[in-house]
Design brief:
The complex is a heterodimer of chains A (332) and B (171). Chain A is built from four helices and 22 strands. Chain A has helices at 11-34, 45-58, 103-111, 114-121, and strands at residues 61-65, 70-72, 82-85, 88-90, 96-101, 124-127, 130-133, 135-142, 149-150, 153-154, 156-158, 167-182, 196-203, 210-214, 227-235, 239-240, 247-251, 254-255, 270-272, 279-283, 293-301, 318-331. In chain A, the strands form six sheets. Chain A has a six-stranded mixed β-sheet with strand order 4-5-12-22-8-11. Chain A is elongated, with a radius of gyration of 34 Å. Chain A starts with 10 loop residues before the first helix and ends with a strand. In chain B, 36% of the residues lie in helices and 22% in strands. Chain B has helices spanning 9-28, 37-57, 65-70, 88-97, 147-150, and strands at 102-111, 115-121, 131-139, 160-170. In chain B, strands 2-1-4-3 form a four-stranded antiparallel β-sheet. The longest helix of chain B is centred in the N-terminal third of the chain and has 21 residues, at 37-57. Classes of the chains: A alpha+beta (332), B alpha+beta (171). Chains A and B meet through α1, α2, β5, β12 and β18 of A and α1, α2 and α4 of B.
Chain lengths: 332, 171
């Protein structure tokens, strides 16, 4: 063999070494990537979202003042001593009604600071003494999508939702007392006994159908001819309401088919016979404009109405429960 | 015979690229799967169904679940008669509450000389991954009932407990 003692690196050698070094560097660079699947990732986002949902919907919350040794479930009145936040309402007998939310609790909930809320709902993990918080967003929507508002406050708490992370989401269906209470003011218009009208003053504040439920009638002398509903009208409006105007009448839960009313007393009307008959009038929201006050007149016959006295016994307070959905989203 | 032991450059390059690409492909293909997605979907569906029954039952004025059950007139539903007359209102209520991508059936289970499981609202045949939620209502003698229930002998001492089953699935 010819000895070559020139000392130059040949082109072949260079090319080979370059390829070799390049491959070595590339391989070394992605060796850490082999171990990526074994890094700890949070896998419990779904359970955190689920338990937060349960905590909010089925628990009324708790406050406790150790110095005065008092405590209770109405944390919305004791924000400084709140220990746990919950939205379920508690009725007069101290019984919790799950899925039915209390208006004041929901309102105060939207105003709690983010740090306090993380603490109250337990949305963090302790790892070697260091507290890692979850990101979260809890919002209350109407069933058809818009954000629910109470007293002009959007009911939403937490952080804005990130666009590039794994998020666990749970939706719960709820009923919220949005506080629109209307008590029917059975107000006689001072007409002679043949024309007995009941007037209900109503200010249309929410975008919902207006429901009037009347029961416990003071029906005189059964079994005589039945008492009757003659017509319903809304003032200001377009006169006597017909079924096509968005008037639905139910008697004891059954919808009466296509009620048509005229202004005289002789046309087919709704008749009721028993004191316990439950009578429901649903006026479509299209009859009203938000913010305006209307008078709803309902004309009856053969009902014993006393002048100037509310004749419907045990008139229920009509609390409008809006149906909504509580969306809880949790991320790392 | 060629016993020089050198590799040609181009062949060497091709071989190196081939080996590296194979190794990269293999290592990047490993993925750790945490099979929790299906559990989460089931849990969400169960929550929807339970919540829907709770909401219908908690209605303070007007029709609640007890009154809907009491208004049932005994007609069984099937694929051709999906919603019998007395159940239209309950069906409208439930479809307003439940999200649009969920279909449901409703069954009543009660005792009338024998245990009866009756389909009351049918919107389809439930597939394998459907979820059932139940709620119990009690019919007393003082409740306003349909003629069907009145004929089953509900007295003051014998109230009737009816289990309302909501079977739901994603569509």
């Amino acid at each position: 063999m010819m000895k070559d003692d020139l000392g130059q690196a040949s082109l072949d050698f260079l090319a080979g070494v370059i390829i070799f070094m390049g491959s070595l560097i590339m391989i070394i660079q992605f060796i850490p990537g082999i171990f990526t699947p074994f890094q700890t990732e949070v896998t419990d986002l779904n359970s955190v979202a689920y338990r937060t949902g349960v905590l909010l919907l089925e628990d009324p919350g708790w406050w406790s003042n150790t110095s005065t040794n008092t405590s209770g479930t109405d944390w919305e009145n004791h924000l400084n001593n709140t220990q746990r936040v919950g939205l379920a309402s508690v009725d007069a007998a101290n019984k919790t009604t799950p899925n039915v939310l209390n208006k004041k609790k929901v309102e105060k909930f939207a105003n709690i600071s983010k740090d306090n809320l993380t603490e109250f709902l337990g949305l963090y993990r302790n790892i070697s003494g260091y507290q890692l918080e979850y990101g979260y967003n809890i919002s209350l929507f109407y069933l058809d999508g818009g954000l629910l508002k109470i007293n002009d406050t959007n009911i939403t708490a937490g952080y804005p939702i990130p666009a590039t992370q794994d998020i666990a989401k749970i939706e719960r269906l709820v009923m919220v007392d949005t506080g629109e209470i209307s008590v029917a003011n059975g107000n006689l218009s001072g007409q002679p006994p043949a024309n007995k009208k009941v007037q209900i003053n109503y200010t249309h504040l929410q975008d919902r159908d207006f429901k009037i439920i009347i029961t416990s009638f003071n029906i005189t002398t059964p079994p005589g001819p039945p008492a009757e509903l003659n017509w319903v009208q809304v003032v200001p409006g377009s006169g006597i309401l017909k079924g096509s105007d968005g008037l639905v009448i139910k008697l004891n839960g059954t919808t009466m088919v296509s009620p048509t009313f005229n202004s005289d007393d002789n046309t087919p009307d709704i008749k009721f016979y028993n004191q316990n008959d439950e009578f429901e009038l649903i006026l479509s929201k299209n009859l009203f404009t938000i913010g305006q006050t209307y008078t709803i007149e309902i004309k009856f016959s053969r009902i014993d109405l006393n002048y100037g006295v509310m004749i419907f016994n045990n008139l229920p307070k009509l609390v409008f429960y809006d149906r909504g959905k509580l969306t809880i989203e949790v991320w790392q | 015979m060629n016993d020089k032991g050198q590799m040609h450059t181009l062949e060497g390059l091709a071989a190196a690229v081939l080996v590296i690409t194979t190794v990269m492909f293999i290592t990047r293909a490993t993925v750790v799967v945490t099979p929790q997605i299906e559990l989460a979907l089931d849990a969400q569906l169960k929550q929807y169904s339970n919540d829907a029954l709770t909401i219908v039952d908690s209605e303070p004025v007007g029709m609640n679940l007890t009154k809907y059950v009491a208004a049932w007139n005994g007609i069984e539903a099937n694929i051709s008669l999906q919603v019998p007359d007395g159940m239209m209102d309950l069906d409208n209520d439930l479809s307003a509450i439940m999200p649009d991508n969920i279909a449901y059936n409703v069954d009543f289970v009660y005792w009338n000389n024998s245990l009866k499981t009756t389909h009351v609202i049918v919107h389809g045949v439930p597939p394998d991954n459907s979820i059932t939620a139940s709620r119990l209502v009690t019919l007393h003698s003082t409740d306003l009932k349909s003629s069907y229930w009145n004929g089953t002998g509900i007295t003051d001492l014998n109230p009737r407990v009816v289990e309302v089953r909501l079977i739901s699935w994603y569509i």
